[in-house]
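Recap for those who missed Tuesday's class. We walked through two folding examples back to back. For each one, the amino acid string is listed first and its predicted structure tokens come directly after. Nothing is annotated here on purpose, so try labeling regions yourself before you check the end of the notes.
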Amino acid sequence: AEAIEDTTHEDGRVMNQVDSRRPLVIDTRELGRRPGNSLRLHRDVATPADFGTDVIGIEEGQPMGLDLRLEAVMEGVLITGEVEATATGACVRCLDDVSIPVDVHFQELFAYAERAAHHREVAGGDDEDELPELDGDDADIEPVLRDAVVPSLPFQPVCREDCPGLCAECGARLADDPDHAHEAAVDPRWAALAALQEQDEDQRK
């Protein structure tokens, strides 16, 4: 996936390093390890797979804009960011196309390897308390973005709040025909009696 990146240090210097093969892996080398160092970057990337649910999500390959702030802290690199994209899917009531803007904020600490090892030792190997870890100087933010974006999507997307849905009998879109109606269904037991009555009347004639 192609990625376009503009990175600015707090002192105004610009960094333009990005691996287009891994657009959601952030190289933190220029940030350094001195606590308090920080830099900002904007990155436009193609959305990876599985950024959504069965009914709505950001399609693979669609543009995703990232505004990120990287800060060096004692434990590692704190990444704060905002994700902007457009999720598409289908209305759960009428099945029409749905398009919803995505604007999600996230924050995650990526620990230095030695800090992560110490944390695992203190936590006793509890996976729930495990911190994301830098791979050398690289921070893979894809899992963090997915965990931030997917829960923000509507569980049951609708094209509009008062969407009336589809006719249960014929599947017609009720929003196009508010007065849509069918004749009352005849109970099959009464239908059999009606047929007998018609047959008796014919015999009398």
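Example two. Treat it independently of the first, because the proteins are unrelated.
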Amino acid sequence: GAKLFTSTCLACHSAAYMRYNRLTDIGMTKDEIKAMLPEGGKLGSTMQAAMDAASAKMAYGVAPPDLSVTSRVRGADWLYTYFRGFYKDPAKASGWNNVIFPNVAMPHMLAAMQGEQELRVENHGGHEVKKLVLVTPGSMSPAEYDATVADLVNYMEFMGEPAKLVRYDLGYIVLGFLFILLLLTYALKKEYWKDVH
């Protein structure tokens, strides 16, 4: 997920609150991280977009948002559905549209992997049902693409809150301490009240 994010997403988007050296938290070595760094980048530098905001605004009509905390704002399920929801739309400037985010300015950067989908609207009992159909396969099977998107979303989830796992571990330690404190408090209560009863 981290490799796909740095090779694809960082072309336009930035992740200004994430530093490359935090990738060691997910098991990457410093050599693997150095291979992903942009030219002139350092291990402690933040993840900046290759394209500056003014150029991106000229190309897409809007500056691409920073993706550092997108997973916390939108949620992992939304992101997963978003990356799987692109379809071909010749009416749009980018040639792409999205089911979950209509009229999005972002082109489908993962189209070579997924292939081209087409939106079909069917009428079932007076209700419109929108359905995406793969018309041109990509370099990956649908299952492989879904797994790749899941990896990307998992990385974005980590990026949104890198200390989440540390916080969970700390929570178990605090709960253990409180349980031991409860036992000690109960023993102290028994000792204090033994002469009263």
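Answers for example two:
Residues 165 and 171 are 10 Å apart (CA to CA).
The first strand starts at residue 15 and ends at 19.
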